[in-house]
Design goal:
Elements lengths: L9 E5 H13 L23 H18 L2 H14 L24 H18 L3 H12 L3 E2 L4 E5 L5 E4 L3 H12 L5 H17 L24 H15 L2 H28 L9 H10 L2 H7 L11 H11 L8 H16 L14 H6 L11 E5 L6
Antiparallel strand pairs: 1-5, 2-3, 3-4
Helix pairs in contact: 1-2, 2-3, 2-4, 4-5, 4-6, 6-7, 6-9, 9-12, 12-13
Amino acid sequence: MSAQVDLLPVRMVSLDNLIVESATHALEDQGQDGSMIPGFNGPYHDPETPVRNTAHWMISFLKAYKITGEDRFRFGAERAAYYLQSEKARPQGFTFHHRDTNRKDACNGLIGQAWTIEALAQASTDLELPDLRELAEEVFLLHDFDNALGLWKIREINGKTLGFDVTFNHQLWFAAAGSMLATNSLIDDQLSVFLDRLPMNLGLYKNGLVQHPILPKLNSGMSFGLRTKRLVATAVQGNWSRQRDRVSMTEKAVGYHAFNLYAFAILSQRYPDYDEWSSDLMKSMVSYAKSSDYLETLDGNRYGYSYNSPGFEIAYAIMCLPYLFGEDPEGQASEWVGRQLVRCYDFETSQMSLNTEDPVNHAARIYEATRLPNLDVPIVSTGGSL
């Protein structure tokens, strides 16, 4: 007699419907000036301005407008764009003001600017407002780019140039946001150099996990001066000097692995002929993302499902780079989206706000799903009825 198998109840949900429902709820929280409620950057607990979430929700409003054709979503996006163009968002006329803390910069390195540039570029196209693109290009080009290293420096909100941003995903996401502006030849030139230097700046563990800090490979055939050596020393001293730091960096690396793959996927849409998409480096990253070790380690990681949105991020990487992931890319993508939703999406409030220490920010991260097609997503019950 065969053993009885208990099947958990499953229902299918439309991803487009969830985006529309979530955007509908968010419209109720939009301020008169177009801003959205800020969070505190999840596990980092940095008090944030409304800039980040306003940018994220603007993209979701635009997607909801595309799906439904309802003007309320277009108006919401237009109000958000108005806020991002205001003095409140860029108080000193340089970079966008993302966070308020005495311990860190106010621009949130390159990643804060990348998120805002991404939203402005998308809105400029969808709303047919060229001034939004011009603003995005202006802010992007405020950042000094080093051609030898293929890396950008941080520009503070007061215009002061700081050092290199030595977090890999920050550099990668800044490039991904820039790729949405790459018809600008100056930006395209910088992105071409960034991609050329990528094998030098991208570090992987033996299992294919992307290392969190940038540690340029000095044996890559290029000539390096004192500036490069100082950059490497800063990264090593700041991130790897103690065993506790190494453990912390590995935990972050796991939580941000999908975040990196999502940015690579964005870049692949602008630069489809780039050789590295089929390289051993990329295959190694994808192999780790498909491994049982990654799935097991991701659960419980404070930078994983509860802060970033690896379910959406891996799904988008699958759709953009299907030849690296194997058969049935749409089925794989649906499963990943389901993993994200079943852990974090509150079907009662239509917000991605469960099992996270920063529900306001995490709800806004549903915008990462807007690049996906309208998937039918399996939602598996963890017990009880659906």
